[in-house]
Amino acid sequence: MSEKMSISQKNEIKAKEVEFGGKIFELIKILYPICRSITGDGVRKTLKILQKEIPLEINEIPTKTKCFDWKIPKEWNITDAYIKDPNGNKIVDFKNSNLHVVSYSVPVNKKMKLKELKKHLHYLSEKPKAIPYRTSYYNEYWGFCISYNQFKTLPEGEYEVCINSSLKNGSLTYGEYIVPGKIKDEILLSCYICHPSLCNDNLSGVGLLTILAKILTKISTHYSYRFLFIPETIGAIAWLSKNENNVHKIKHGLVATCCGDRGTFTYKKTRGGDNIIDEIVEKVLKKSGETYEILDFWPSGSDERQFSSPGFNLPIGSLMKTLYDKFEEYHTSNDNLEFMEVKSLGNSLSKYLEVIYELENYTNKNKKSIEKTLKISVKNDPVFISQNMKCEPQLGKKDLYQKLGALTNENSNEIKRAIQWVMNFSDGYYSLSEISKKSKMNLKILTDAANLLKNANLLKEQ
Ligand code: ZN
């Protein structure tokens, strides 16, 4: 084995692109039917399947464990769920699609009129054939997701509703695998394993990282490679809280998601935007001759937002094909096996490998981060400092979204965005007007958000 990945190995891998794409697709096909969530047996089953490919370590963190501002929730499991119409016909069956049940639904077994049932039904009138994907992790609730076409045909009468689920003390499960290199400095490659039967978002990322880990196991590398298979948000927060003292080893990283659609590549830059990984991904995409898009960091999306919270600020970007929520199939039953393309999966894998090859051989030691100096508030342009520098605070329990909604009359997406921008960039370096420039959001909503967060003791003025 050579000290570093050699050019010939790289070309060999490139030649095998379709073969590797096929392997990722085979894995996605096996994982697709499993009902996953942020906790539960679906996650364990998924990780056990991955263990057949790589010697993944499976970890359990007990319910109620404190992780920064969060607590590990109760474990959710489900065996069956259905709705029977007034004639006793099963018209919605969890066994046909696990997307039919809102993830984390509490158990229910009762009869009710259509009017009451409708309060628990979710559909997308703009995508009438698709079943939407919905979750309710932190509010006790039950619900079903159906197509709008089906919703329209529901007759009046009494329905029988059953969700055979359990919400009990248990644990959160995640997988971790390290490929040791010559040095202890690490490259973090992370994906999320909490989505049920959805392919691009994110079985494609899970499959890609598994096959990538398998390839790297056979190659001698300079860096050590840490692979994470975690439930989104809470898994990243839990992992960071457990590994707080070791994250300094992480020198570069990527979150793998949406790697199998037929679209062109998208790269979401690191929070700083000027890290080596940003330079390298751009170089790889440019060299490919394919169409691509590079986007500046924004503080929502996937787990990069926890890794990039100001207290960690890890140089982690996200390389994908079409950006989540920019493809029509996103978070619906149409993000299925047919939506995946073997060629795209293979192409994504080869881009990841090229990025790794470039990182391994990176020699420009002159690369320096731009020095930033802490600022103090000036009149009309305050600078805040977050009191939750490490990972996002658990905002759901603090009613802030509702309060800001009442104050600004903005829609809930804008409110959430304003809070995320202010929380992530209030690190003492960015003033509100600079956050406004970066986010392209108006100063008024950001100021309202900052004042509200300050009153809730989540921010302090510098
Ligand atoms: Zn998602």
List the helices and strands and how they pair.
Layout: H1 7-15, H2 17-31, H3 41-51, E1 57-62, E2 66-67, E3 70-71, E4 75-84, E5 90-93, E6 108-113, H4 114-118, E7 121-122, E8 144-145, H5 148-152, E9 158-168, E10 171-179, E11 186-192, H6 199-217, E12 224-230, H7 234-242, E13 250-256, E14 265-268, H8 276-288, E15 292-295, H9 304-307, E16 316-320, H10 342-360, E17 383-386, H11 400-408, H12 412-425, E18 427-431, H13 432-439, H14 443-455, E19 459-461
Parallel strand pairs: 7-8, 11-12, 11-13, 13-16, 14-15
Antiparallel strand pairs: 1-10, 2-3, 4-5, 4-9, 6-9, 10-12, 14-16, 17-18, 17-19
Helix pairs in contact: 2-6, 2-10, 6-10, 8-10, 11-12, 11-14, 12-14, 13-14
Bound molecules: zinc ion.
Overview of this protein structure:
With 462 residues, the chain is α/β, with parallel strands linked by helices. It folds into 3 domains: 7-72 and 171-360, Aminopeptidase (3-Layer(aba) Sandwich); 75-168, 3-Layer(bba) Sandwich (Glucose Oxidase, domain 1); 383-461, Orthogonal Bundle (Arc Repressor Mutant, subunit A), CATH 1.10.10.10. 33% of the residues lie in helices and 22% in strands. It contains 14 helices and 19 strands. It has helices spanning 7-15, 17-31, 41-51, 114-118, 148-152, 199-217, 234-242, 276-288, 304-307, 342-360, 400-408, 412-425, 432-439, 443-455, and strands spanning 57-62, 66-67, 70-71, 75-84, 90-93, 108-113, 121-122, 144-145, 158-168, 171-179, 186-192, 224-230, 250-256, 265-268, 292-295, 316-320, 383-386, 427-431, 459-461. It has an 8-stranded mixed beta sheet with strand order 1-10-12-11-13-16-14-15, with helices on both faces. It has a 4-stranded antiparallel beta sheet with strand order 5-4-9-6. A hairpin with a 5-residue loop joins strand 4 and strand 5 (90-93). Helix 6 (199-217) packs across helix 10. The chain starts with 6 loop residues before the first helix and ends with a strand. 44% of the residues are buried. The model has no long low-confidence stretch (mean pLDDT 93). The site of zinc ion has 4 residues, from loops. Residues 195, 201, 324, 331 line the site of zinc ion.
